[in-house]
Design a protein that fits this description.
The complex is a heterotetramer, with 2 copies of chain A (209 residues) and 2 copies of chain B (236 residues). With 209 residues, chain A is α/β, with parallel strands linked by helices. Chain A is built from 5 helices and 13 strands. By secondary structure, chain B is an alpha/beta fold. The chains are: A alpha/beta (209), B alpha/beta (236). Chains C and D meet through helix 3 and helix 4 of C and helix 4, helix 5, helix 6 and helix 7 of D.
Chain lengths: 209, 236, 209, 236
């Protein structure tokens, strides 16, 4: 999923990768493309983790993991960092999801469980501000419940914000009419994806899907 | 002469009152002014409202302050972390309340408070539970929430270097919320790894000008939260 | 006037001096006091004009005159500069005036002449934000009209903003009840100041005025 | 590879359209991108709305653009200067309109525009002619005006040094409005006295990160407005 998503990251993009699987996208961006990674805690030009023993505990990413600074990097404070996000200066963010609705609503910050400690971080800012919002997620939950649904039942992160979803089964765009399949994973049929999806899929792939 | 340097962290935090709103710089451990927080624990002020992106880890720094029962309300965006055990307990017991604010809205509210802007509109959180009950307005066909600037009685800040005027520079991503909090607090207290002679900081690279800083204290070898937590340190 | 005003500038103050006579205050601040000058175009720690031939045309003050940077100076952009002003971080600003009302209203940016090019600069921001606003002005206009009045007739810069006025005749505070004389210039009587003032003066000086 | 450097000021401004809103950095001559402005005069775009603190001096730079009749509206705080003769004439003749904005409100409106904030409240200008007809609201017993964020099609900026990513540092008080305008424009064009190899600018001291910059052009020896005006230069 991360690898497929990486193909859609264009040269020269300013990109924010969410914690977890989205972070892996960086490893797969095709050679020859220069992409600048933003971490919302205050840096552009984020590089890979440091060699063991060379890190600085005060050079970290939004997941609080040690990282490095690429040549051309810049540090800034949180208000400037979120001005980049809210002001529409970032080209792409890649996030995980609990649910995505066919209108592009995203739920990814809370299961709404009454005893959970609510924690949102920068997710609501990212989906409200970044030009293109990609979601990477398993197509269904561990219990086989669909994560692509007509309407989200979990608390929302943003309304109508998701542009494209990369799952283990397909690449799906959120268009005016709903979920449009753009690409199926090898050996996966349109019907089997539809079965695992909680909303109607629109065929639209160039691969005949 | 202007000399904002004080001789100890204890002196720096001596006059913080019960019930104060305290902004504490840092995102995770980067920029966390651990020694100032520990001095605040020793000082004893309680019933504090604390503004920080997180709620600390282990039992040092911010987590130790919360564990000591001094924090009645946390204003933050992400009160959950791998090693954050103290806050969840006190939150569930009802001792410590939580005001959850999206990270960018939190940052901008603090900046607004420091910049004399009482309120502004933001697209973040429209249509979400955090936007419920919040005044809404449409500009150019898009909906926005009205949010208020945030100020504080005290800000505790960690810098890399400072001078006696209170000019501060930071270390890498330890900068995060600190320059904003310095603007938004009535009394801004900076612990700096080095306090350098006036004129040594290039005017082009000063991040927080001294006008926003009221006290500076040298803490030459600040502790690293992750190391302290890994070593099982518990403060006090 | 500038000299008298300078006595009221305390050690450690952050001060913005308006263009013209207010600028002269800096020359009279008593020895032993360290005062930090703010210029709203983007510097704290503004120093005196450069020695001839040593200036930088890009190191200027709000009056667009070349200045220097004292040790401990800092440069910043306009939004940060006016955050200092609007956010109440500056202790004192010293401005000129066309008129001041007994409620502390200030008019100093426009005579309201229909053919004049309106120009306001940072005056409205300064009076709205700086903790203490001092005005330095001749007591009357060149034509002998009072500049301290019951109500300003010129367009306002701010409402109820002036704290103290330094004229050639007196030092006058704006208090709840109106203009209170704090000090008379040598050889000047309360009555003669009252004659030249467009509102009732309240005696209050420690010198018997 | 990312390379935002273009080879000439003419190329840098080639696609600016008639009717565009153009933010031009600088406070007086400090930070004024004279060479980019002259290229814009040569380019021919007209009916421009220009945002700048002032209206230029003499007959070079911004004043020359105004004199050439290209500016239909000036948005500024102080359109009067010792050597400002061009604007008053075109203003009085009705050719160029004026939107007068207090300096701090102008700066903050530009920052808001760049930061995705559609509107905010400010105490500046309450009770003055510039507050008349503006929506007003009381917060905590004080009155404020509602003002809108300001964006632009293009920003023309002068830096001291830049790199191919578009990171910029400035010279002293030439910084002024430029970092804000860089944030607020769809296309930000920077002329820099030197374009340095990537990695040469310390990440701690970059003032405008490259994300806000779209084109960089080297102008090694930029003219100084005061000198040009004193020499009686008139552009073109």
């Amino acid at each position: 999923m991360a690898q497929r998503c990486a193909l859609d990251i264009q040269n020269g993009s300013y990109v924010n990768l969410g914690i977890g699987i989205p972070e892996r996208v960086a490893a797969y961006v095709p050679q020859g493309r220069e992409v600048i990674y933003h971490t919302e805690n205050g840096m552009l030009g984020m590089g890979p983790p440091p060699e063991p023993g060379t890190g600085d505990p005060e050079l970290i990413n939004a997941g609080k993991q040690q990282v490095t600074a690429n040549p051309g990097a810049a540090y800034f404070h949180h208000a400037d960092s979120f001005a980049m996000i809210r002001g529409g200066h970032l080209d792409v963010c890649v996030l995980g999801a609990l649910q995505v609705s066919e209108r592009g609503d995203l739920a990814n910050w809370s299961t709404g469980a009454p005893d959970a400690i609510p924690a949102v971080g920068g997710a609501m800012d990212l989906v409200a501000g970044v030009k293109t919002v990609y979601v990477i997620t398993q197509h269904t939950t561990r219990d086989g419940e669909p994560k692509l649904v007509e309407s989200c039942t979990f608390p929302l992160t943003g309304l109508g914000v998701v542009d494209r979803i990369y799952t283990d089964l397909a690449v799906i765009d959120v268009v005016e009419a709903g979920f449009q399949v753009v690409e199926l994973s090898p050996g996966v049929s349109f019907e089997s994806v539809q079965e695992r999806t909680g909303a109607k899929l629109i065929p639209g792939g160039t691969d005949g899907s | 002469m202007i000399n904002k340097e004080v001789s100890s962290v204890a002196e720096a935090v001596a006059d913080i009152l019960d019930g104060a709103t305290v902004m504490i710089g840092g995102f995770g451990e980067a920029g966390s002014p651990i020694e100032l927080i520990h001095a605040l624990i020793d000082q004893g002020a309680t019933n504090l409202t604390v503004v920080n992106n997180n709620t600390g880890t282990g039992e040092v720094g911010l987590a130790a302050l919360i564990k000591a029962g001094r924090v009645s309300t946390m204003v933050c965006s992400y009160p959950r972390s791998a090693n954050s055990k103290v806050f969840p307990e006190l939150y569930r017991s009802g001792h410590t309340a939580l005001e959850l604010v999206p990270q960018g809205t939190l940052a901008e509210r603090i900046r607004a408070g420091g910049a004399g802007i009482p309120a502004f509109y933001t697209p973040t959180a429209v249509g979400t539970p955090l936007g419920e009950g919040v005044e809404r307005r449409t500009f150019d066909d898009r909906d926005y929430l009205l949010v208020r600037g945030l100020t504080a009685d005290v800000a505790l800040i960690k810098g890399r270097a400072a001078d006696r005027h209170g000019n501060v520079v930071y270390n890498k991503t330890a900068r995060n919320f600190s320059p904003l909090m310095a603007m938004a607090a009535k009394t801004t207290i900076v612990q700096a790894a080095s306090v350098v002679p006036i004129g040594e900081l290039d005017p082009e690279v000063v991040v927080t000008p001294g006008i926003f800083v009221h006290r500076v204290v040298a803490v030459p070898n600040p502790g690293h939260e992750a190391e302290l937590v890994a070593a099982g340190v518990s403060y006090p």
